[in-house]
Design goal:
This protein has about 90 residues and is α+β, with helices and mostly antiparallel strands. The chain is about 25% helix and about 40% strand. The chain has a five-stranded mixed beta sheet with strand order 4-1-3-2-5, covered by helices on one side. The longest helix has 12 residues.
Length: about 90
């Protein structure tokens, strides 16, 4: 059985107004990752990802590039204890 993990990510760069949240949801759904993504007031994007270690690593790798018109400068990841509290991946506000 694959290890389940939880990662909190803060993505900086040109990540607002470039469909980052919507595209993150599509990518997370594709990887089978649960959690949420939202814009922060400081211009960054914040996300919580839960799922298999392989899937979460895949979405974090995706976040380093984001959608085509985004310009990601940094992805700051904090690993947390897996909680299994999500049943979908949502864009929150």
């Amino acid at each position: 059985m694959e290890n389940k993990v939880r990662a909190h990510a803060v993505i900086s760069g040109r990540v607002q107004g470039v469909f980052f949240r919507l595209e993150t949801k599509h990518a997370a759904d594709g990887f089978g990752v649960f959690g949420w993504v939202r814009n922060k007031r400081d211009g960054m994007v914040e996300a919580m990802f839960e799922g298999s270690e392989k899937s979460v690593m895949s979405i974090l790798e995706w976040c380093k590039k984001g959608p085509p018109i985004a310009r990601v400068t940094n992805v700051d990841v904090t690993w947390e204890d897996y909680k299994g509290e999500f049943s979908s991946f949502d864009v929150t506000y």
